[in-house]
Amino acid sequence: MRTVLFHNIISPYKTLLFNALAKKWRGELTVCYFARTSVLRDWRVEEERILYPYTVLNRRRKWEEVPSWKLSLQVLWCAMRSRAECFIIGEYSSLPYWFLWLYGIVCGKKLAAIVESQEADHVRTAWKEWIKRLFLSRCFRVVVAGEKHKAYVRKLGVPEGRIVVMGGVGGVDHAIYDSCRKRYDVEEKREELCSMLGIPLRQYFIYVGRFSPEKNLLSLLRAYEKAACEEKGWGLLLVGSGPQKTELEAYVRAHGLAHVIFSGFVQQEQLPLYYLASRVFVLPSLSEPWGLVVDEALALGLPAVVSEKCGCVPDIVHDGENGLLFPPEDEGAFVRCMKFMMEDADLQKMGRISLKIAQRHSPEESARRIADGFWKQEG
Q1: Of 158, 32, 160, the residue nearest 86 (C-alpha)
Q2: Residue range 130-143, pLDDT digits in tens
Q3: Measured CA angle at 138 (ends 133, 141), to 5 deg
Q4: N or C terminus: which one in the chain shows less Cβ crowding within 10 Å?
Q5: 45: how many CB neighbours lie within 10 A of its CB?
Q6: Does position 187 have pLDDT exceeding 90, yes or no?
Q7: Within its chain, how far is the Cα of 90 from the centroid?
Q8: Residues in a beta bridge with 306
Q9: Which helix (H) or strand (E) holds 174?
């Protein structure tokens, strides 16, 4: 079956998934990107890594910079030219996707949707939920990231037999990550690694992502301080950038947190080194559709302290096994988790479990689930 998958931008983790999916697809799979990149993303776009047929509608402008009406017309033109029998729609929150949905219904195309949001992402309103119900009701398959996302679309009325759980939102390049881990994941190499990154040699908690309010990073700094991490020889690596950076830096200065390091934005190929220089990954988000950075941390053998609101829970973070979970509004629980990781946890054992879980959630495995589930008979 000739299929076109419509997606907003080229991203490293989706490229891995789509490369694997194209190999397993029954028929021809083409990806139509709205633009090369986004104003919210600073990662390097490496089109030479794309191994499937694709087109980019806007190469010179970022996704958010293209007017919705223009993008809608571009998407419709791409759909008509493709002569595809099936459209996979990347989401339902913007106008171009709805134009595509209507065109598919009028022309008798098979429609499928990808849903990476969960009910707890934000406050839901009845009329918006009704619209989503309508959108998904016309899709013969709904591909979801994990168990929380499955529960959400079931609540929106999607029958069990139409749902495909892919077990993630993209993927980690396990070949690169395994190579880095084998080279640096030994105690003798940590000093060399920290020297290469320009950071002091010590035990680190690490956060990777945007510096924005929904990530709950002020709570992270307060918990780090209350848990007396620095007195116990631990530091905190904050890898990323975003609108809250100045506020976070001001808090660190005001409270004299000497071992909190802002590493700035780091490209994908350098990220494994920062994870390997650390002992425990932390993601305290108030809202997080999935949390791909958790996949990355687990793929390098790190235990994780993760907010219960993250979409990747319970798929890849198992409380007490390879990490700890806490309600993001409960700072006391957060402090207890950090203390446990420093004082009582068997970090090596938890890290080994993380590796096993990560291997079961590779891009290849997600692609297999999608391809097999796409053509299953409805139950």
Answers
A1: 32
A2: 999 999 999 999 99
A3: 95
A4: C
A5: 16
A6: no
A7: 14
A8: 283, 325
A9: helix 174-184
DSSP strand pairing (203-208 vs 260-264): unpaired
Q: Widest CA span of the chain, in angstroms?
A: 66
Q: Which tops the pLDDT comparison, 70 or 376?
A: 70
Using an 8 Å Cβ cutoff, are 346 and 321 in contact?
no
Q: How many other C-beta atoms lie within 10 A of the C-beta of residue 353?
A: 16
DSSP state of 48: G
Q: Let me know: does 346 contact 324? Beta carbons within 8 Å.
A: no
| Sequence-separated (6 or more) residues with CB below 8 Å from residue 85 | 1, 2, 3, 109, 110
Report how far residue 153's alpha carbon sits from residue 90's, in angstroms, rounded to the nearest whole number.
Answer: 15
- Helix or strand (DSSP H, E) at 374: helix 363-374
Partner residues linked to 224 by β-bridges: none
The secondary structure of 17-41, three-state, reads HHHHHHHHCCCCEEEEEEECCCCCC
Q: 379 falls in which pLDDT band (50, 70, 90)?
A: very low
Phi, psi of 371 (to 5 degrees): -60, -45
If you average pLDDT over residues 303-329, what whole number do you get?
97
- All domains of the chain, ordered by start, with CATH? 3-171+362-374 (3.40.50.2000), 174-359 (3.40.50.2000)
Query: Is the overall model pTM greater than 0.90, yes or no?
Result: yes
d(CA 343, CA 76): 58
